[in-house]
Amino acid sequence: MFEFLHDLWSFLRVRKKMWLLPIVVILALLGGIVIATQQSSLAAFIYTLF
């Protein structure tokens, strides 16, 4: 996992694509929310946000 993050950071830095970093972070957070709420009581609260 850390090797992937290191490679991603190197790619963004070398290619000067820093504008992609917020997009990657938001997608990772949304993925984490989906995984965390699959079988929990938080699903009803997350549903009301969207």
Topology:
Blueprint: H1 2-14, H2 20-36, H3 43-49
The helix count comes to 3
Strand content range: under 5%
> Overall 3D geometry?
elongated
In total, the number of strands is 0
Radius of gyration: 15 Å
Spans of at least 5 consecutive residues whose pLDDT stays below 50 are none
Mean pLDDT: 83
Helical proportion, percent range: over 70%
Provide an overview of this structure.
The protein is mostly helical. Helices cover 74% and strands 0% of the residues. The chain has 3 helices and no strands. The longest helix has 17 residues. The chain is elongated and about 40 Å long. The model has no long low-confidence stretch (mean pLDDT 83).
Primary descriptors:
mainly alpha, 50 residues
Summarize the structure.
The chain has 50 residues and is mostly helical. It is built from three helices and no strands.
